[in-house]
Specification:
Elements (H helix, E strand, L loop, with lengths): L13 E2 L2 H4 L7 E5 L3 H10 L5 E5 L9 H9 L3 E4 L2 E9 L2 E9 L5 E5 L2 E4 L49 H23 L1
Parallel strand pairs: 1-8, 2-3, 2-8, 3-4
Antiparallel strand pairs: 5-6, 6-7
Amino acid sequence: MGIPGEKEFLGRGVSYCALCDGNFFKGQTVAVIGGGNSALEESLYLSRLVKKLYLIHRRDAFRGQQCYLDQCESDPVIEILRSSVVRAITGGQAGVSGIEVENVATGGVTHLDVDGVFVFVGFEPQGAFYPASLTRDAQGFICTDQDMRTNIDGIFAAGDIRSKNCRQVATAVGDGAVAAQSAYAYLASRVS
């Protein structure tokens, strides 16, 4: 996100993976930043571990699926802060100790004591070096068929660069296996 304190506290209270780091915050207070499915799903996961969770979204309406939002709204551990942005992450030698949150509707700034900050504000694909004629979705992720083939003959894509809903190691590994098999079949057909 590029906010003050984010880089300084990476690994010392700032995380991008609830499954990876959530247990470090058992019984503590955390903030989740984001408004899509990732933020909502990760908030629900974290709410089973922490005593308090602030879900902070810059807009009034969420982009994530309504079923996840409904669960977050009814979870007593989760407090949703709409129309709000984190302006700074604060702390010291021990790590994160708080965040400065601005309500964009009123301009008011509040300090919240938190032990951790989880950032889920979307993904930015790193594929600028690919051919410009490669078909991508609106966010810039590469479109493939079920065999990981792209629109350009002989180019396959796998993992998080692909246009898909779930970006996890398990799906990337599956994509990789399919892409490898498809690439092998493609090369074998060219040699025959």
